[in-house]
């Protein structure tokens, strides 16, 4: 009897072991598609719309002639031939449109006729059985491979494949090899191998980034040797300018700027001119965008010598051209204007009349492109010269007082006084000088303590709304003094401020709960209690309860303390009733 029981238990244990073994080989995965192996495609083609996919239809043209070469290659294409090809393609497209339109009209006329007017032979349809038997020829897959028929991979091709698909260490080694031996490999073999890789439909973002990085380094090392291949590079790089990814657009901009500096303006214009009036709107769009970056990269270098020209009109026109370029490039591109800052700076000290006005205008448009520190310095220096010119003009004999009052005085106060005061006011509100702003708030707090709420000038109801914008300042001294001031007002003079203003301050005080300093958080929590005592706990509690959903633990803890202080201030009975 015991033997049968032991055998039964043994069978049961074997079945349980088998079931567990079957489950153990199955991977534990979630319900999402990614855990089952259906990962989201990272291909660039999958996230592009039909308009951007038209880049795959572009064909790289043959190599262009180098206008600066002594012996151009016979197989390359010149500027005149490129223009003829573009005109022929445009005429061919127009002919196809006319033929298609006529064919459509004929089909409409034929469809309008009676179907019974057709002969019996016209109605006869062909069948698959009427077709003759096809004899399949010998394909390239049926041929016996022989040694040496197919080209093997060279070191250059292997490096390009490693950059695209290799491990990080392999990519680093291959990139160094391509950069060091680019002149040995030659511009033609390099670009003819790299550019088709960028046109692959299965290309991913990371692979494109690495290949674009290779092109950027090769262009820098080859310099003027890239001139015959400018159009091929542009066909591949121009679609990056309209990509939805910001970093892809930046990469395309850098490549075109570096290509412009390496090939020169004449080569860029001769290469891109046939595509400006191309029949394809996609080509015209990308070419126009590329032209804008070519201009920003080379336009200043071309005209900067005009600032030192002997002719006064040339200097004036050059300065006004810089004004237009700076205005179009704002707020970026200060690196391109570095070479003209010194001539402009010397010019405003030596020129007079219209030339001085043009130079001052050019500096006035270039200063907004600078960083904050440099912009502040140059602005102060330029203002000195402007004020000096105004002072000299006003003190000159013959200048009438009425003219000064009507034409100069209003502009002077508008640009040098009113705007400066507005700038100081904005600096105080936004905390451009946080130490000063914190001291001002501390002084206001002391004045409120001494004078009291009833005798404040301006009144508390007018003062508090102007202080709300200071909450966005992240300086600890400003935050601490502001919270203390608001807490003092909410404790002693809450009835002078509307309830709607207190609720606006409550929403702004929630940001104070994220402060690093403990004293600021403690003062903000106590201020919630004062505000709840003034306007009632209902709205304040609704704001605090919604803030409990945030992810930051510190903010949730401070919110909980604020709720407790509100309950203590307004009594638990009131909170329970709400």
Automatic annotation (TrEMBL):
Pfam families according to UniProt: PPP2R1A-like_HEAT
Coiled-coil ranges from the UniProt annotation: none
Protein name: Phosphatase PP2A regulatory subunit A/Splicing factor 3B subunit 1-like HEAT repeat domain-containing protein
Locations listed in the record: Nucleus
UniProt family annotation: Belongs to the SF3B1 family.
GO biological process, one term: spliceosomal complex assembly
Disordered: region residues: 136-158
Keywords for this protein: mRNA processing, mRNA splicing, Nucleus, Repeat, Spliceosome
GO MF entries: mRNA binding
Lineage: Eukaryota, Viridiplantae, Streptophyta, Embryophyta, Tracheophyta
One Gene Ontology CC term in the entry: spliceosomal complex
Organism: Artemisia annua
Residue ranges annotated for the Phosphatase PP2A regulatory subunit A/Splicing factor 3B subunit 1-like HEAT repeat domain, each copy included: 533-575
InterPro entries xref list: ARM-like, ARM-type_fold, PP2A/SF3B1-like_HEAT, SF3b_su1-like
């Amino acid at each position: 009897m015991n033997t049968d029981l032991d055998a039964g238990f043994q069978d049961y244990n074997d079945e349980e072991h088998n079931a567990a073994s079957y489950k153990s080989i199955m991977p534990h995965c979630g319900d999402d598609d990614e855990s089952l192996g259906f990962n989201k495609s990272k291909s660039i083609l999958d996230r592009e719309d039909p308009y951007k996919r038209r880049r795959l239809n572009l064909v790289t043209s043959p190599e262009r002639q180098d206008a600066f070469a002594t012996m151009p290659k016979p197989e390359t294409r010149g500027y005149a031939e490129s223009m003829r090809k573009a005109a022929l393609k445009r005429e061919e497209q127009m002919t196809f449109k006319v033929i298609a339109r006529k064919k459509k009209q004929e089909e409409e006329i034929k469809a309008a006729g009676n179907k019974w007017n057709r002969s019996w032979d016209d109605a006869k349809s062909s069948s698959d059985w009427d077709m003759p038997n096809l004899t399949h020829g010998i394909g390239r897959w049926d041929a016996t491979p022989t040694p040496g028929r197919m080209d093997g991979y060279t070191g250059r091709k292997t490096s390009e494949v490693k950059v695209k698909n290799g491990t990080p260490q392999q990519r680093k080694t291959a990139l160094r090899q391509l950069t060091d031996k680019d002149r040995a490999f030659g511009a033609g073999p390099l670009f003819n191998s790299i550019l088709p890789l960028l046109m692959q439909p299965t290309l991913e973002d990371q692979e494109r980034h690495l290949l674009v990085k290779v092109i950027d380094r090769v262009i820098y090392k080859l310099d003027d040797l890239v001139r015959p291949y400018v159009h091929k590079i542009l066909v591949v790089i121009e679609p990056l300018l309209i990509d939805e990814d910001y970093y892809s657009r930046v990469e395309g901009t850098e490549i075109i700027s570096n290509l412009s500096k390496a090939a020169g303006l004449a080569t860029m214009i001769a290469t891109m001119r046939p595509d400006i009036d191309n029949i394809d709107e996609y080509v015209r769009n990308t070419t126009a965008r590329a032209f804008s970056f070519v201009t920003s990269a080379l336009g200043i270098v071309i005209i900067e010598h005009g600032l030192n020209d002997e002719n006064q009109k040339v200097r004036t026109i050059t300065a006004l051209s810089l004004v237009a370029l700076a205005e179009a490039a704002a707020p970026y591109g200060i690196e391109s204007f570095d070479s003209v800052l010194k001539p402009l700076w010397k010019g405003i000290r030596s020129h007079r009349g219209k030339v001085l006005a043009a130079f001052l205008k050019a500096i006035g448009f270039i200063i907004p492109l600078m960083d904050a520190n440099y912009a502040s310095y140059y602005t102060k220096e330029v203002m000195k010269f402007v004020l000096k010119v105004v002072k000299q003009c006003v003190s000159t004999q013959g200048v009438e007082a009425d003219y000064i009052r009507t034409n100069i005085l209003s502009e002077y106060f508008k640009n040098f006084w009113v705007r400066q005061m507005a700038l100081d006011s904005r600096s105080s509100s936004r905390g451009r000088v946080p130490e000063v702003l914190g001291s001002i708030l501390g002084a206001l707090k002391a004045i409120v303590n001494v004078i009291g709420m009833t005798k404040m000038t301006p009144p508390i109801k007018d003062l508090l709304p102007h202080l709300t914008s200071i909450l966005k300042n992240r300086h600890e001294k400003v935050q601490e003094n502001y919270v203390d001031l608001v807490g003092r007002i909410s404790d002693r003079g809450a009835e002078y401020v509307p309830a709607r203003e207190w609720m606006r301050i409550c929403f702004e005080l929630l940001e104070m709960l994220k402060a690093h300093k403990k004293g600021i958080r403690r003062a903000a929590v106590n201020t919630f209690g004062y505000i709840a005592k003034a306007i009632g706990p209902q709205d304040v509690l609704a704001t605090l309860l919604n803030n409990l959903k945030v992810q930051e633990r510190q903010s949730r803890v401070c919110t909980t303390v604020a709720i407790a202080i509100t309950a203590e201030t307004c009594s638990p009975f009131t909170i329970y009733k709400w």
